[in-house]
Amino acid sequence: MADNAENNSEDEFRDMMRDFLSGDGEIDPAKLAGAAGLPNDPAMIQQLLSQLQNALGKSGDGINWDIALEQAKNLASQSTVVSLPAERSKLEQAMHVAALWLNEVTDISELTVEPKLLSRSEWVTITMPIWTQLAEPVANSIANSFTDVLKQNAPEEMTDMLSGASKMMRNIGGTLFAMQLGQVVGQLSSEVVSGGDIGIPLFDEQQAVLVPQSVFAFGNGLDLPDSEIHLYLSVRELAHARLFRHAKWLRLQFMTSVTAYAHDIHIDSDAIAELASDFDPNNPEELRDAMTNGSLIPPKSEEQREALERLETVLALVEGWVDVVTAAATSRLPAREAIAETVRRRRASGGPAESAFATLVGLELRPRRLREAAAMWQHVTDELGAEQRDSLWSHPDLMPTAADIDDPAALVARLRDGGSTPDDIDQAISDLLNDESGDRPHEGDNS
After folding, report:
1. Interacting residues of 251 by C-beta distance below 8 A, sequence separation 6+
2. Is 251 exposed, middle or buried (0-12, 13-18, 19+ CB in 10 A)?
3. CA–CA dist 142, 291 (Å, integer)
4. Closest by alpha carbon to 327, among 312, 316, 338, 313?
5. For the range 286-293, what are the long-range contacts, defined as Cβ-Cβ under 8 Å and sequence gap of 24 or more?
6. DSSP 3-state of 116
7. pTM listed for this prediction
8. Which residue in 365, 315, 293, 305 sits closest to 134, CA to CA?
9. What is the per-residue pLDDT across 239-287, written as a single tens digit (0 to 9) for each?
10. SS3 209
């Protein structure tokens, strides 16, 4: 009997939603599309309604991320221009020269896979798995929170209907979120110029990637030689890819940290309840604003702040190393400094789509200490040479810390003394053995 009641309420809710999606509801479909962050375009609105209708008939529970991929590819294709063979040849030659220049300034070995030149649509297809990995915890939290709040605040006559339709409501909420993510990634495809441009490792550790259309657009308004821009961007991308290939643990450590941070993000149920109580069906843009301005995600916990600080340190270390190596490898380019400053400013501010991702997922990927980290790597290079600098990427325990960024001289002094300090376990064993022998001085005694 209970199963029959649940099925009846689910069918009732499905019928109500289908009536709405057919245009027989209070909310204008165009306004619903606006709430989902989509443009007021008839084809886009029809796509949204079609996806929501599919969500109603979906038997499983969970988010269909193929929707995000389809949305992003559709958006990317609108701005994609196929690069000409002559343009691709220029970038292939730039990559070849860049590899030779890098060999002169770092012992980190070359890639074993040829660099890829991707269209914006291809970039979307290859990188979407990483974006969905980052977004899924927040998407699930939003869908579940909306379901709970709607059930708690629904009129009494709708309680039975909603209680049997939780799975369907989560599917609808997940569909809206997936379409928003697709919109953001589609916009990102028009901003990025290379695989390492965002900072996070979007590709395999052996893969260097350029987006020719964006590379050729990078120099618009800069009054700098295109050939120098192409060489500089090629060196940066190859340096980034070489580092992740050399330090194979780095990509796993980075993505594990990002995913752990994202999994701790949750949605403020009180904020959603307040949104639901004040919700005006004739003004669904309120829903979009709430989802894209970060107001539904509560302030970071102490654990999250610490995790974010660790992430920012790793980002800064990677980007700072790439900056220093790229500067050395491109010393022949007269416009090197001007291009480098443009890259740093662009990297520090991010584009509109990256900002949208930060508010949508609650994770802002900014190397806030980039200049300080680059200064540290340069100091190590000047004092100890490129070989010892690059050896710090040979093991996770050797990677510099935030304290090393603050005090590069202390890092250099430690390296001159034979390496880093022992780890905690080694130190504890040493302390125990020395205490048992009675020869161990008190902790903090430097004598």
Report:
1. 201, 205, 244
2. middle
3. 9
4. 338
5. 286/35, 287/35, 288/34, 288/35, 288/36, 288/37, 291/37, 291/142, 291/177, 291/180, 291/360, 292/37, 292/180, 292/356, 292/359, 292/360, 293/359
6. strand
7. 0.76
8. 365
9. 999 999 999 899 888 877 777 776 666 666 676 666 656 655 555 566 5
10. strand
Alpha carbon distance 367, 369 (integer Å): 6
Q: Locate tokens 């009054």: which residue?
A: 223
Of 376, 434, 430, 362, nearest in space to 141 by CA? 362
Q: Report, in this order, helix, strand and coil percent for the chain, each rounded to 5.
A: 70, 0, 30
173 neighbors 287 (Cβ within 8 angstroms): no
Q: Which residues are CB-neighbours of 194 under 8 A, at least 6 positions away?
A: 208, 209, 210, 211, 215, 233, 236, 237, 240
Tokens 């064993």 correspond to what residue? 429
Is residue 303 scored above 50 in pLDDT?
A: yes
Please say whether the beta carbons of 378 and 216 come within 8 A.
Answer: no
Query: First and final CA of the chain: distance in angstroms?
Result: 80
DSSP 157: G
Q: How far apart, in whole angstroms, are the C-alpha atoms of residue 277 and residue 255?
A: 38
CA 373 to chain centre: 20
- How far is the C-alpha of 250 from the C-alpha of 258, rounded, in Å? 12
State the CB neighbour count (10 A cutoff) for residue 417.
9
